[in-house]
Write a structure and sequence with these properties.
With about 750 residues, this protein is an alpha/beta fold. It contains 26 helices and 22 strands.
Length: about 750
């Protein structure tokens, strides 16, 4: 920034603060601001545009343009160079503005003689509040120092506007820019339930109280000290870690250290402080720039890197504030809000006071989702922007079924959610009434209803739900929530607790289903372009046979004199299954040779997720004792659809002719081979989908415990002969989805779908 005119950057920011504290009207203060900036930057024009209703940008103040244009000139979203700055959320620096294709001439402003144009976004919390511009008659490119200076002023201006320091923020008439206004978000419902409570931020955003530095040299010293502290803390984590040097956790910590040492990142922070900002304000400004870049990047690897940098900025803020310890104390009705969480982090909070969870980054397959479901906590994911919008103590309403979220709701919305919660409580009571009744259809067909589990805290749900057993126990959860590989004796003790908690009811233990989106915190994993199709599940076990044998040994040791059921995930062909079964047989033989207690019987099954396996079912069932359909992966592979990608995850319906025909073929093929087939994917836990599965011949369904009641009520109102005839005809249709037809059929026959 030139040192002519009003003086140095420090003087500019000091005078900016004086204007903000002025008791004059909002317009007078804005007029003083643009005059000050124009003088300091030796610009002939300085203008402030702020957002109004409908994303329009209104000229709020100007020095140099026609004063009559103030509050009369409005640019539509994306219109003109000012619209370009707001749209891109990046500076636009031009030496010949009138010849730019996005230039929009507005005669009432009198801006035609000005060639040079520099515009920067007024940004706070990832939201663009407006645009700050300077212009000159002479054709010139503004240098980096001038761009940096104007960005610093815009950052301060954004904080002042957002806090109502210049005028009532309600005048902007844009709800998403007002921290006190109600906001509604549409996310993905991942764990059903209705929650009403108060927001608790998993990583509270440090509130920046002071923006302008009284002593830049002292602020620079504070910043450097905090950077040193942060690096020291990261080094301490590395030196005190008990993890293997090759562990993924160590690699993450080392990545943090590399980011913390990044010279370019540190230089941005120091330049902002030298420009007159406090250390906290400098970090906040860099964080805002990162958020805006993150929103525009598609590449998942680069997005992950920017997520790391943003996390690093939050760490630095906490070191600056002196608040390095995260509290785990919760109010009575807490709703946790975070960008992302691991399963162990959620478990740290406990269940007693936690009413719901809202995450920006979570899918149905995330392990935090599985843990939340096990804990019976409503959760919604893919809620973009919620962390920047939510404040600790805000009232929040969430519907874990629809994915609907309301922050700071009005009274009518609260009443609506209270009604939903009451209705849900009534439904729970209805389900409890059928808990001990058999899951038998009207025409006498018995359906086995099992629960999915993965933690010891899931096991009481067997009795609570009235389920027949555990159809899928995800053994990887024990490995995911720890910091190191569980030892053999710990695995044996854990599996023994599961078996004993189940009593006489069966438990199907799925061997480690790692890879894809399930990464151990202490393992070494190479980045894959298509992880769902890569090195995962049984492919890891066959390449690392000791891992499978280690786990099977623990399962055998935990199941003396019982029937042990082992399920192998992601089998692609019969040879893979036979190779795994041979490893299991070796462990059984080892137990016999050592005269150790053995299971009464060991049943080994294959999970049918890879479409290729369905063509080999007769051959497979000569070796396998049972087959369990994993509909989640099977559907994504059949439709070539990434179920973690929100753009396509709901594009294809499993209640469609190809999906139902596929399941029908699997059931028929298994029946011909006299094999046992069950369903343990998401489809099993939805009443309408479960109705179709029963019609196709599935007689064992495994689901989340909360779904047992609704499925049992549906079964007891169903006649399998009627629905089987109907679904058989539907398989020959060409509809994109059969959902509407199935729903209508259920309504006509009085089938309960709750």
């Amino acid at each position: 920034m030139p040192t002519t005119g009003a003086g140095s950057p420090r003087v500019l920011l000091r005078r900016l603060r004086e204007i903000m504290a002025d008791g004059s009207s909002a317009q007078t203060r804005l007029d003083k601001l643009v005059a000050l900036i124009a003088s300091n930057m030796v610009a002939e024009v300085c203008s402030i545009y702020l957002r109004r209703a409908g994303n329009a940008l209104e000229l709020f103040a100007t020095q140099g343009l026609n004063p009559d244009a103030v509050h009369n000139t409005r640019l539509r979203s994306g219109q003109g160079l000012v619209g370009l700055v707001a749209e891109s959320a990046e500076p636009v620096n031009l030496s010949d503005a009138p010849n730019h294709p996005r230039f929009a001439y507005r005669p009432e402003t009198g801006e035609d003689p000005y060639k040079s144009f520099l515009g920067v976004p007024i940004v706070r919390g990832g939201q663009v509040y407006g645009v700050l511009t300077v212009q000159n008659r002479a054709a010139r490119q503004y240098d980096e120092e001038e761009v940096e200076a104007l960005q610093t002023v815009a950052m301060v201006l954004a904080e002042v506007v957002a806090s109502g320091g210049l005028f009532d923020i309600a005048e902007l008439d844009e709800p998403e820019l007002r921290s006190d206004k109600p906001r509604m978000f549409a996310g993905d419902g991942l764990c059903e339930g209705v929650a009403i409570g108060v927001v608790v931020l998993h990583e509270p955003r440090v509130r920046v109280e002071a923006l302008i530095a009284d002593d830049p040299a002292a602020e620079l010293k504070r910043l450097n000290g905090a950077l040193d502290e942060m690096r020291g803390a990261v080094d301490a984590m590395l030196s005190s870690s008990e993890l293997d040097l090759s562990g993924e956790s160590r690699e993450v910590i080392e990545a943090y250290r590399l980011f913390a040492d990044d010279a370019g990142w540190q230089q941005k922070l120091r330049d902002a402080v030298r420009g007159g900002l406090t250390a906290e304000a400098a970090v906040e400004r860099v964080q805002d720039e990162l958020r805006l870049r993150l929103a525009r990047i598609e590449d998942p690897y680069m997005r992950e890197k920017l997520h790391d940098l943003e996390d690093l900025a939050r760490r630095l803020q906490r070191h600056l504030s002196g608040d390095g310890v995260k509290t785990r104390e919760l109010p009575e009705n807490a709703i946790l809000v975070a960008r992302s969480m691991g399963p162990s982090e959620l478990l740290d909070y406990g269940r007693d006071r936690l009413q719901g969870v809202i995450l920006e980054d979570a899918t149905m397959t995330s392990h935090v989702t599985i843990v939340a479901s096990s804990m019976g906590i409503p959760l919604i994911g893919n809620v973009q922007g919620v962390v920047d919008s939510a404040r600790s103590g805000d009232i929040a309403l969430l519907d874990g079924t629809s994915g609907e979220l309301h922050l700071r709701p009005v009274r009518d919305t609260i009443s609506l959610f209270e009604s939903r919660r009451a209705m849900r409580a009534q439904r729970v009571a209805e389900f409890a009434a059928v808990r001990d009744l058999p899951a038998v259809t009207k025409d006498g067909v018995r359906i086995n209803l099992m629960i999915n589990a993965g933690l010891l805290l899931d096991m009481p749900n067997l009795e609570i739900s009235g389920a027949d057993g555990v159809g899928l126990f995800r053994t990887e959860m024990q490995f995911m929530v720890g910091e190191t590989m569980p030892r053999l004796k710990d695995q044996i003790a854990f599996y023994k607790q599961i078996v004993e908690a189940a009593g006489d009811k069966p438990v199907v233990f799925r061997t480690l289903d790692l890879g894809g989106d399930k990464i151990l915190p202490y393992g070494r994993w190479e980045r894959e372009e298509n992880p769902a199709l890569g090195w995962r599940a049984i492919r890891i076990a066959l390449d690392r046979p000791a891992l499978l044998r280690y786990q099977v040994r623990a399962l055998i040791g935990a199941s003396p004199h019982r029937v042990l059921r082992i399920l192998l995930p992601m089998i692609s062909d019969v040879a893979e299954f036979n190779e795994c079964r041979a490893l299991i047989d070796r462990e059984i033989e080892r137990t016999r040779l050592l005269s150790l207690p053995q299971p009464r019987q060991v049943l080994v099954g294959a999970m049918l997720e890879v479409p290729a396996l369905m063509f080999m079912l007769p051959q497979l069932l000569r070796s396998a004792d049972f087959v369990s359909i994993g509909s989640n992966d099977l559907m994504q592979f059949i439709f070539a659809m990434d179920r973690t990608n929100p753009r396509v995850a709901k594009r294809y319906d499993p209640l469609s002719p190809p999906a139902l025909t596929l399941i029908r073929q699997i059931v028929h093929s298994a029946a011909e081979a006299q094999g046992d087939v069950s369903m343990c994917g998401e489809l099993a836990g939805r009443p309408l989908e479960a109705m179709a599965l029963i019609a196709l011949g599935i007689r064992t369904l495994s689901m989340q415990p909360v779904n047992i009641g609704p499925i049992k009520m549906m079964i007891r109102s169903l006649d399998t002969r009627e629905v089987s005839q109907f679904v058989e005809k539907l398989c020959g249709r060409t509809d994109h989805s059969l959902r509407t037809r199935l729903t209508a059929f259920a309504a006509e026959r009085g089938i309960t779908l709750k």
